[in-house]
Amino acid sequence: MKHNNTYGALPHFYIDKLVVCRNCGKEEVWPAERQKWWYEVAKGNIDSEAVLCRSCRHIEKERKDEARRVHQEGVTGKRMRK
Ligand SMILES: [Zn+2]
Description:
mainly alpha; 10% strand; binds zinc ion
């Protein structure tokens, strides 16, 4: 009996894929070479596909950088008030 078990298996080829951004709902093409990079270089989870479009990923990154900066300033500020 042949098992059709794809667990842990990577696709043997990639095709450009249309993904819908979970944040803004914008459709964006996830190019085959980016998929390959995601799975084989970044070791991305096979289930966590590109769910944010390019601009949302950028916004998300900015937001995290800003949060980190504010946090660091907050820590410094507390020290200074003392
Ligand atoms: Zn988006």
